[in-house]
Structure formats: structure tokens, C-alpha cells
Amino acid sequence: MIALEINLESKEDCVFLRLSGQYDLARLVQVITEVGKLCRETGCRRILADARGHVGEIAVLELHQIGELIAREIPRGSLVAVVVSEGRLTMDRFLETVAVNRGVPFHLFTDLESANLWLKGANLGPRGSHQADREKSVRSPRGDTQSPIP
To answer: How many CB atoms lie within 10 A of CB 145?
Structure first.
């Protein structure tokens, strides 16, 4: 069995991590906690994780737990982009949904360039608030508009 390897670094206002090797929930919990701590210490509000080398099955319940942990540990207003292999995309969409439903701007990609463009294109205001989401209006089924973020 290959151990889960994680390289974590902070540069250019972005925390970057590369996940490779066998999936290990306990180690992933540690890493998410470390990333949250690093974001709070450095003020970084953009997180890019390259998980294309991450192998192993992740149970649906564990994907849910990981999504909840991301929402608890990652500072509010942070953007999270995760690059996964094509084969993992469908299953990992559940993780994306859990995180997004808990208020985390989280998006899955299959290539680093798209993930970087999404992170760089985001307009983060003071204290990492996601300005683009604040300025958007959502049209309800009745046709009136309302802001998604109070």
C-alpha cells in the first residue's frame, strides 16, 4: 500500500497542496485542519488542491464528512478548487455539493489551468468575502430577485 503523500505550501496568496498515494481519511482530516490553520495564519483565501494522484475508494459517508470538515475548518470566504482525475469526477461531485451547501465556494476541475483561472478570476473583497457572489442576484421561480447572501 502506498502512503498518502501531501505537499503543502503557501505562495502568491494561494495555499497549494498535492495529494498522491492511497486514500486515508485520518490523514486527510489532519491535512484539512492544517490547511485551515495556514489560511488563518497567512490570510490566504484561495486553496488549490491537486488530487489527481490520490487513489483509493472513498465511501459516500466519508465524502460527506470531508465536505462538512472543509466547511468547519476552512475560513469563511475562502475559495477551494480541487483538481481530480476524470474517473473520480462523478463521485467527488457529492463532496462538492456538501461543501457548497455549507457555504464554501468549492469547485472541482480536471485540469490545473482551469482551476487556477477560476481562483484568480474570483473577486475577493475585504477579509476574503466573495464579492462576485455578494453582487449577484438570484431570480426566484416567482420572477422576483433576491440576494443569495444577506
So the answer is: 9
b/e map 51-68, b = 16+ CB within 10 Å: bbebeeebeeeebebbbe
The DSSP bridge partners found for residue 14 are: 11
Cα 88 → chain centroid: 15
Length of the chain: 150
- The answer to whether the beta carbons of residues 8 and 15 sit under 8 Å apart is yes
For the stretch 51-87, pLDDT in tens is: 999 888 899 999 999 999 999 999 999 999 999 999 9
CATH of domain 5-146: 3.30.750.24
DSSP symbols for 93-134: HHHHHHHHHTT--EEEESSHHHHHHHHHH--B-GGG-BHHHH
- 84 phi and psi, to 5 degrees? -125, 165
pTM score of the predicted model: 0.76
Grid cell for residue 106 = 468549492
